[in-house]
Amino acid sequence: MRTVVLTMKASVIEMFLVLLVTGVHSNKETAKKIKRPKFTVPQINCDVKAGKIINPEFIVKCPAGCQDPKYHVYGTDVYASYSSVCGAAVHSGVLDNSGGKILVRKVAGQSGYKGSYSNGVQSLSLPRWRESFIVLESKPKKGVTYPSALTYSSSKSPAAQAGETTKAYQRPPIPGTTAQPVTLMQLLAVTVAVATPTTLPRPSPSAASTTSIPRPQSVGHRSQEMDLWSTATYTSSQNRPGADPGIQRQDPSGAAFQKPVGADVSLDCKIDLSFLIDGSTSIGKRRFRIQKQLLADVAQALDIGPAGPLMGVVQYGDNPATHFNLKTHTNSRDLKTAIEKITQRGGLSNVGRAISFVTKNFFSKANGNRSGAPNVVVVLVDGWPTDKVEEASRLARESGINIFFITIEGAAENEKQYVVEPNFANKAVCRTNGFYSLHVQSWFGLHKTLQPLVKRVCDTDRLACSKTCLNSADIGFVIDGSSSVGTGNFRTVLQFVTNLTKEFEISDTDTRIGAVQYTYEQRLEFGFDKYSSKPDILNAIKRVGYWSGGTSTGAAINFALEQLFKKSKPNKRKLMILITDGRSYDDVRIPAMAAHLKGVITYAIGVAWAAQEELEVIATHPARDHSFFVDEFDNLYQYVPRIIQNICTEFNSQPRN
C-alpha cells in the first residue's frame, strides 16, 4: 500500500512538472509574438537650443559638424538652455564632431555660467539664465520612457524643418493682459525671400580666374587679321574666314560707321564712365578702329564736361593699361583726339583681369572719381574672354560699379569648346534683366549700339549697382538709456555706435544716420535729415547725453518707426540697430512685428542682463544673423565687423534679375 501511495505521489509530481514546463514554454512563445514598440531617437539640427525643447529629459541624435563656432554654447559642464544642444555635447566631450546620440537632462537655472575652451568648442560666459541642462551618454534609465517626438515651444522648430514630428506649445496667458490676435509664428517667422544664385563648380587652382587661357585659332575662328568684309554676307559667325575671296570688301571706316545723329541724352547725365576696350591680337586692326569709332561717337553724344559725364579708357590684352583717366580730358573734342591716338596692344583677351584692375585702380579720387556720380564700366568683348570674369565682376558690383557688356560675334557651334566660361556676360553684368547687355552679330552692327548704350548709362535711376551695402541705407540707432546702464557704460555704447557709423558712406544721397534714446520715455536725438556728413554725425553722437530711467523697449520701437523710419527715403534700405541691457517692462512682440512688416531690418544687440528670447523676437529672421549677445559692455566693439559683414552679405544676396 505504501508503495502504491509513493508511486501515485511521484506521478502527480511528474504531471505537475510537465504542466509547469509547458506553461513556461507557452508564455515564452506568447512573449515572442507580442512586439514591443520600437523606440525611435529623434534627430535635431546643430542650431537647436535646449530652451526650445519642452521635454525635461530626452534622447536625441545630433548630426556631424556641430563643432562650428556659429552654434553658440554658454557654460561648462552645466549649460544655459540658450545653448546649442549638440554644440554643448561636443564641448562636454560626450560627442565628437561626427555626431551621434546623447541624453539631455534639464536642471535648474544657474546664477552664472563660465565659458571655456574644450574639444574644439569655445563656450561663452553668461551672467545668469532661467534654465540649464547637462549632457550625458545615451544610456537610458531602466523604467524611464523617452519621447520619440520632441515637444517644442514653437510649432515651427528646426527639427520640424528636418522632417521630425513635433508638438505645438501654447504659451499660457499672462495675468492682467489682454490676448492679442497674433500667433507666435507670425512674430518669429517673418522671412525675407532671397533667391538662391546658381552655383558653378569651383575651378581647380590651375584654372583660377587670374589664369590666362589662350584662345585657340582653330578652324572656324578668325585669324589675327581678317580682311573679308561684306555688308551683304558677313552678318553672323557662320560667315568667317574661308569665304569666297572674290566677295566685295567694304572699308569699316566708311559711312556705315558714322555716328548716328540725334542721340537723345539727358542734360543731367552725370556719370563717371570707363570703357574697357579689347586690344587682343585676334581682333585685328580694322575691328580695333571700329571700336575706337564707337568710343569717339559716345564721347560726342555724351557732351563730356566737369558738370556732366566724364570718361576714361582702359585697354586690355594680356594685361590692362589705362590710356587716360576721368580727369585727363574734360571736353568731347580733346577726348576724341585722344581716342584717335590709341594703338592696339595685342595679346590675349583677359577681361576678368581688366575688371579687377578697374575695380582696384580706376575709380579713385586721384583719377577724377566724383562722390555722387555713378561709376559705370562698359566692356567690349570680341568673341569671348580668355579668362574668367565672374568673381572679378562680383567684387566690382559690390564696390558700386555698374558693369555693361557689349559682345560682338559670339562663338560658333564648333568654337564653344574653347569658351573658358559659358554665359560669361550674364555672370558679369550688374543685373541679368537685359538692361546691361548688348550683343551684335557682326562688327558692322556695332554702331547700332550707340543710341541704346548712351541712353542706358545715363539712366541713373536704373543704375542699380551704384547702391552698395555701405551707401544705400537709412540707419536708426535705438539706444537703451535706462538706469542699469550707467554713465560709463553709456559712453561705451556711444563708442560702439560711432564705430559702426564710421564704416558707412555718409551723405544726403548715401547712407543717413538717426538716433533715438529711450527709458520709460523716448527722445529723438537726431533724425535722418539732420546731418549730411560723417564728421557732423560723429560729433552729434558724442553729444548725446545719458538719460537714466526704466526700460520700455516696445514703446521705443514704435517711437522709432514713427519718428525715424516714417521719414525714410523710399529708395533706402531701412536698418534699425537696437542696443539694450535688460528685459523690457512692456511687450516687444507687436512693435517688433510692425517693424518687420514695414520692411525695417532689425538688429538686436543685448548686453549683460538682456533677455535673449526678446532679442530673437525683435531681430529680423533669421535671428542668428540679426541678434547678438555680449556679457560685458566692453566687449561690444568685437561685434562691429560681424554686424557690418552680415549687413553686406544680406545686401549682396539680393537677386540680380
Automatic annotation (TrEMBL):
<comment type="subunit">
    <text>Binds dermatan sulfate and chondroitin sulfate.</text>
</comment>
<feature type="region of interest" description="Disordered">
    <location>
        <begin position="199"/>
        <end position="257"/>
    </location>
</feature>
<feature type="domain" description="VWFA">
    <location>
        <begin position="474"/>
        <end position="647"/>
    </location>
</feature>
<dbReference type="InterPro" id="IPR002035">
    <property type="entry name" value="VWF_A"/>
</dbReference>
<dbReference type="Pfam" id="PF00092">
    <property type="entry name" value="VWA"/>
</dbReference>
<feature type="signal peptide">
    <location>
        <begin position="1"/>
        <end position="26"/>
    </location>
</feature>
<keyword id="KW-0677">Repeat</keyword>
<keyword id="KW-0964">Secreted</keyword>
<feature type="domain" description="LCCL">
    <location>
        <begin position="40"/>
        <end position="133"/>
    </location>
</feature>
<feature type="compositionally biased region" description="Polar residues">
    <location>
        <begin position="230"/>
        <end position="240"/>
    </location>
</feature>
<dbReference type="InterPro" id="IPR050525">
    <property type="entry name" value="ECM_Assembly_Org"/>
</dbReference>
<dbReference type="InterPro" id="IPR004043">
    <property type="entry name" value="LCCL"/>
</dbReference>
<keyword id="KW-0325">Glycoprotein</keyword>
<keyword id="KW-1015">Disulfide bond</keyword>
<feature type="region of interest" description="Disordered">
    <location>
        <begin position="154"/>
        <end position="175"/>
    </location>
</feature>
<dbReference type="InterPro" id="IPR036609">
    <property type="entry name" value="LCCL_sf"/>
</dbReference>
<dbReference type="GO" id="GO:0030198">
    <property type="term" value="P:extracellular matrix organization"/>
</dbReference>
<feature type="compositionally biased region" description="Polar residues">
    <location>
        <begin position="154"/>
        <end position="168"/>
    </location>
</feature>
<dbReference type="InterPro" id="IPR036465">
    <property type="entry name" value="vWFA_dom_sf"/>
</dbReference>
<dbReference type="GO" id="GO:0010811">
    <property type="term" value="P:positive regulation of cell-substrate adhesion"/>
</dbReference>
<comment type="function">
    <text>Promotes matrix assembly and cell adhesiveness. Plays a role in spinal cord formation by regulating the proliferation and differentiation of neural stem cells.</text>
</comment>
<keyword id="KW-0524">Neurogenesis</keyword>
<keyword id="KW-0272">Extracellular matrix</keyword>
<protein>
    <recommendedName>
        <fullName>Vitrin</fullName>
    </recommendedName>
</protein>
<feature type="compositionally biased region" description="Low complexity">
    <location>
        <begin position="199"/>
        <end position="216"/>
    </location>
</feature>
<dbReference type="GO" id="GO:0005614">
    <property type="term" value="C:interstitial matrix"/>
</dbReference>
<keyword id="KW-0732">Signal</keyword>
<dbReference type="Pfam" id="PF03815">
    <property type="entry name" value="LCCL"/>
</dbReference>
<feature type="domain" description="VWFA">
    <location>
        <begin position="272"/>
        <end position="457"/>
    </location>
</feature>
<dbReference type="GO" id="GO:0007399">
    <property type="term" value="P:nervous system development"/>
</dbReference>
